[in-house]
Amino acid sequence: MGTRAWALLLVLCGTIFLEGIDVAMMAVAIPAVRSDLGLTTGTAAWVMSAYVLGYAGFTLLGGRAADLLGRRRMFLLWLTVFLAFSGLGGFATEGWMLIVARFVTGVAAAFMTPAALSLITTSYEEGPQRNKALLVFAGTGAAGFSLGLVIGGLLTEIGWRWVFFAPVLMAAALLVPAVRLIPRSDAPPARRRTFDLPGAITAAGAMLLAAYTVVRLEHGLHAWPLTLATGLAALLLAAAFVAVERRCPDPLVRLGILRKSQVVRADLGALLFLGAFFGFQFVVTLYLQELRGWSSLQTAVALLVMGIDAVLAPTLTPRLVARFGNARVIVGGFVLAVAAYALFLPVGMDWSYAMMFPTLLLSGLAFALAYGPLTIAATDGVTESEQGLAGGLLTTATQFGSAIGISAVTAVYGLASTGSGPEATLSAFRAALTVPVVLVALGTLISVVSAREARRAVRRASQVSSVNASHTSAKPAQRSGGISSWK
């Protein structure tokens, strides 16, 4: 890749880094925010959940909007919105102001991230060049989250409002070169299209209710009728969305893309992998801070090794993909994740950091092997006109995965907390740690199926090539025989 291509890639990767660091810093800063503004526990929880609702609720719509309205336009517009509302959050004096700011910031990320991903998949040639760009993109996002834990701890010591102002400075630093580097040729289709408003409304409604249902899983059996009601409402709206799309001449989402089995498996694999990763990280953070008494900064530094994928994803993973194939590398990543999380199941009250280190290292290595190749698989073979949609589906899967992972471990922890005292708390943590193991075990099965399908596809292609070669070699002989007979 040339200098301009690398510069464009850095800008686009900067957005996923911004998104990752923003989420991580907020997770570290929320106790200080709650204390300073006098927020109730419920309000503090909504400050965190509002971002997830906005992000997960509008990602599918955001991905398709990039295809229909122009990727450059959507990227620049929503990066600006992200900048503005992150800054407004820094000036908040009431809980509701923070909730609104975080919700709109999540919506902005829902439009901005799929646009950035689709700009990569349409700006770089399919094959090794695009694969490397996508692996760098995936690694940068994980690095943002890992570094965000440390940076968030440092900024919170200065003042929690800097957790909101720092993303403003980063977004501004990305916006200026993005205006120059993103080609203006990236425009919406020349053919005039009607915007599928009923599809957009039903899709956004279904995704918002589904995200809210997932967030409510954290409450376990408490107020379960409301959780069940929102889940059923989400399913009804999803059914309405499918009915609308089948009848619409210009659908928001062409349902045929869901017939691409490799795309569906990649999205489901990403959902399970991210769910396990963030669920595990959430439990470990609680274990270190609540049970072991570590500070937020000590915890962040301890977890920093999980960000090793930021180095390995653009360096080691492309070589492994070139040698063993995308599907096999994904399987390797899931197997490593199963081993990593299983090693932490017998965690003790006085485990040293040396005993935790293998799990933290292996989980970071697993992320480097699995997430980038899953991103490649989720966009491979999709037409250029639907790359935004493919990116939106993948981002939706990852957002729901992270929400499901955190909600599931929280629910299991709550159900397993049957007593008081350190030993009872440790037992509840161990129960919660089974959730990441189960998620990556399911992901391993799916990835094995994908690997088998990939091998079959290679064999079929090889057989077709052999047949074509035999026909080609046979034709001259047939012509020669015919001429000899004629003579």
From TrEMBL:
Polar residues bias locations: 471-487
Residues passing through the membrane, by range? 45-63, 75-93, 99-121, 133-156, 162-183, 195-215, 221-244, 264-288, 300-317, 329-349, 355-377, 389-416, 428-451
Q: Does the keyword Nucleotide-binding apply?
A: no
| Coiled-coil spans in chain | none
Q: Where is the Major facilitator superfamily (MFS) profile domain?
A: 8-455
Q: Where in the cell is it found?
A: Cell membrane
Keywords of the record: Antibiotic resistance, Cell membrane, Membrane, Transmembrane, Transmembrane helix, Transport
Q: Membrane topology type, per the record?
A: Multi-pass membrane protein
Q: Which residue ranges are recorded for the region named Disordered?
A: 468-487
Q: Does the keyword Ribonucleoprotein apply?
A: no
Check the record and name the PANTHER family matching this protein. BLR6921 PROTEIN (PTHR42718:SF46), MAJOR FACILITATOR SUPERFAMILY MULTIDRUG TRANSPORTER MFSC (PTHR42718)
Q: What is this protein called?
A: MFS transporter
State the species of origin.
Streptomyces lomondensis
Task: Please spell out the taxonomic lineage of the organism that makes this protein.
Answer: Bacteria, Bacillati, Actinomycetota, Actinomycetes, Kitasatosporales
